[in-house]
Specification:
heterodimer, A: mainly alpha, Ferritin, 4 helices, B: alpha/beta, Alpha-Beta Plaits, Fumarate Reductase Iron-sulfur Protein, Chain B, domain 2, FAD/NAD(P)-binding domain, 4 domains, 5-stranded parallel beta sheet, Ferritin-like_SF (chain A), metal ion binding (chain A), Ferritin-like (chain A)
Chain lengths: ~150, ~600
């Protein structure tokens, strides 16, 4: 794994912003590749969400607080036990949600890890805030999955 | 002039000094007795506007009228009783018959007004001093004119029925059917609740009057699967039944079955007799031979259209055949209902998959309209480790195999995951396949289970165990059988929608060793036959339609049943089929003109 060193809080946020941009680009790219146009629309919605996350982080970079600071998150842990889902041209909605949940979990784990190894108190705070943000994103997707694919469970 | 004539004026004057026998101001000084039958009261929140009071009033003193603030809704007509005191005789029959106990009488008897029209008023709505009065005449259990208890359908005892797939419900005999039919108030509240608006009061009346052939015709006006529905319908009508407020709902489903049990042998003659169908030139293709597709076919064919149903399975029936076990719905019943439909000239082509054997576009070219009714027959899988392990089944596939005559070897210890009707069918079928221990795992509590309460109760009677707030997280193979790792749940705080979601408990992992694990957690639509066409499909795989006409974005292409709404019950699919027939016919007539 590449070594990540942050000298300033700004660098931390820039790193997170780039991750959101990467996610947005990923969804937009695959929105054009999937066979079913309605699934393309779903991926575009995910991309739009990632763009909103990016905007949120830029807002924090301008000196504001994280939007959901202090609010509690329901962790259904659905994604914790899902197998990995690879993206492919015949993706369906259930798989798209599984994929997105897993991606949020990866982001979550990344910030948790970075917080744990950070020696800078301010950076650690930022990573904690980012972890909570990703947790919120995961919660939203898991609630959607619970509503649509766990109706009889 | 007699002596009496001389004395009487003095005698009369003497009386003026005596104490009066009557009260000077009787209305203010003498209250009505505790249970005096005075002016009416009505708890308008409890009132459902069934009109039974209007029906029983011997003086026609009651009219049901619309009122502001009481909108018609499921189980409530929105009407409320208006009493005319020029006609009311204060007999209180209306109170004694009220199914909800909302109508009562105060002990107030004073009402002075120069306007005679005011004496017709709506209790509980028009503001009167006696509204909400505690005293007066209220309905008591002893005086209630209605019989609250359901005449239960005889069923095979649990110990006997768990060993066989033979039908477990035995049907009403004549006596039970008549007793149950006599409980019906004919209020009609049930009609709106039924998705296909069956004329329930009329067919129950036909039972009372021993006119079963008329009853059958009433059934078939709106539902060509009445014999099946008389066994498996979810009976929204019974949920809305006026009697259910303070007693048991009328056994509407069982009464429907009574009619079909006693007429099926003459059904075609009764319904179609010498009726000739006037042929029309247009043709309709129906994709899917389940309840929705076949219902549409039946009503379209009656209007004279050439109708061809394409079914990918070897036999028609859809989920009625492949999703509901024999002990609930014998295949012989379904077969003869389908024959009634095909005998009027509906062409049925089985073993034909649209999108495979014939393209969707070809069907469109060769027909004037198409109705898509492919249902939601694919099982949803849990994306956890071990789903492909031998011994793990998907619920609907499992039921499909049983319907095809297979008897899968599922071993002795079976775990079923899910809480809907499919899970109940699966666990009860597992019992009948000889499994000694059948357990159902459900991630939430019993209160949240979508399965019918009756099904859950019957499963328990047959020995099925239920484990709530548990979810499997991983499955692995053992030397013999499976190891299913599970986690316990708790219901978390309500989320933004108000729902309490199940949240895993830390450190609650445990394992279950079983022979088979059957996942019955939901179903989805296979709309692949329309992929690559211009028909709009939603992200959930369902077909997008106009809510009123069931037409898709493509003129002449309609869709209904589970493939439009997502998994739902058979009666809703049948209702969609009937509705689609109406709008397809309208479309074809417009095209013709």
């Amino acid at each position: 794994m590449e070594k990540i060193i942050f000298k300033t809080a700004d660098e931390v946020l820039q790193y997170a912003i780039e991750r959101e941009e990467e996610a947005r680009d990923f969804y937009l790219e695959w929105a054009e590749k999937v066979m079913r146009p309605e699934i393309g629309d779903v991926l575009k919605e995910f991309a739009a969400e990632e763009a909103k996350h990016k905007e949120l982080l830029e807002n924090v970079r301008r000196g504001n607080d994280f939007a959901h600071a202090g609010s509690s998150v329901i962790d259904l842990k659905l994604g914790d036990y899902h197998r990995e889902t690879d993206i492919h041209h015949e993706l369906n909605y259930q798989q798209a949600l599984q994929l997105a949940i897993k991606r949020e979990m990866v982001a979550q784990q990344l910030y948790l890890f970075l917080a744990s190894i950070s020696e800078n108190g301010k950076h650690r705070e930022l990573f904690d805030g980012l972890y909570k943000e990703e947790s919120k994103h995961k919660e939203r997707l898991e609630l959607m999955y619970d509503d649509d694919f766990m109706r009889e469970n | 002039m007699s002596l009496k004539d001389v004395i009487s004026p003095f005698y009369a004057w003497k009386k003026t000094l005596d104490k009066p026998y009557t009260i000077k101001n009787p209305i203010a000084e003498r209250e009505g007795a505790e249970r005096y039958r005075g002016f009416h009261t009505n708890d308008v929140e409890k009132c459902i506007g069934c009109g039974t009071c209007e029906e029983i009033c011997q003086n026609e003193a009651i009219d049901m009228v619309p009122v502001q603030g009481a909108d018609p809704q499921r189980g409530d007509s929105g009407l409320r009783p208006k009493i005319d005191y020029g006609r009311c005789c204060w007999c209180a029959l209306c109170v004694d018959v009220c199914p909800t106990g909302s109508l009562g009488m105060s002990n107030e008897y004073k009402w002075v007004t120069p306007d005679a029209e005011e004496y017709g008023f709506i209790p509980g709505v028009d503001i009167k001093p006696w509204n909400g009065a505690e005293k007066g005449y209220k309905r008591s259990d002893e005086a209630w004119l209605l019989r609250p208890g359901l005449k239960n359908m005889p069923v095979v005892e649990p110990e006997e029925r768990r060993q066989t797939f033979d039908e477990m419900a035995l049907g009403y005999n004549d006596n039970l059917a008549l007793l149950e039919a006599n409980r019906c108030l004919e209020c009609g509240i049930c009609v709106e609740a039924c998705p296909t608006h069956m004329d329930i009061p009329q067919y129950i009346k036909a039972i009372r009057e021993n006119r079963l052939e008329d009853g059958l015709q009433i059934l078939y006006d709106t539902n060509p699967f009445s014999e099946s529905c008389g066994r498996i319908c979810t009976a929204h009508c019974q949920d809305a039944c006026a009697m259910a407020h303070n007693g048991d709902a009328i056994g509407i489903r069982w009464l429907k079955r009574y009619i079909t049990d006693n007429t099926w042998q003459r059904r075609d003659d009764i319904l179609h007799g010498d009726n000739r169908i006037t042929e029309r030139e247009k043709s309709v293709a129906i994709i899917g031979g389940g309840p929705s597709g076949l219902s549409a076919a039946y009503y379209l064919r009656q209007q004279g259209y050439t109708v061809t149903v394409y079914e990918k399975h070897d036999k028609a029936g859809g989920m009625l055949r492949y999703g509901i076990p024999e002990y609930r719905l014998p295949k012989a019943v379904l077969d003869r209902e389908i024959e009634t439909i095909t005998r009027i000239g509906v062409q049925l082509k089985t073993g034909v998959a649209i999108g495979g054997d014939i393209s969707f576009e070809q069907l469109r070219r060769e027909n004037d309209a198409v109705y898509i009714a492919v249902g939601a027959q694919k099982g949803t899988a849990m994306p956890i480790e071990g789903m492909e392990t031998p011994g793990v089944y998907i619920g609907v596939d499992f039921l499909d195999r049983i319907a095809a005559g297979e008897r899968p070897d599922i071993g002795s210890r079976v775990l079923v995951v899910g809480g809907g009707n499919t899970a109940m069918d699966v666990c009860r079928s597992s019992v009948r396949l000889g499994a000694a221990e059948v357990s159902v795992l459900y991630r939430r509590t019993e209160k949240e289970m979508p399965a019918n309460a009756e099904e859950i109760e019957e499963a328990r009677e047959e020995g099925v165990r239920f484990d709530f707030l548990v979810s499997p997280v991983r499955i692995s193979r053992l030397e013999t059988g499976l190891r299913v790792e599970c986690r316990r749940m708790k219901l978390g705080e309500p989320d933004a929608s108000g729902r309490r979601r199940p949240v895993p408990l830390e450190g609650s992992e445990f394992t279950l060793d079983v022979d088979s694990c059957i996942m019955a957690i939901g179903q989805k639509v296979d709309s692949s036959m329309a992929h690559g066409t211009d028909v709009h499909i939603t992200r959930w795989g369902t077909f997008e339609v106009d809510a009123e006409t069931l037409q898709t974005n493509v003129p002449g292409v309609f869709a209904g049943g589970d493939c439009e709404s997502g998994p739902d019950d058979a009666i809703k699919a049948i209702a969609d089929g009937k509705k689609a027939a109406w709008f397809i016919a309208k479309y074809l007539q417009a095209e013709h003109n």
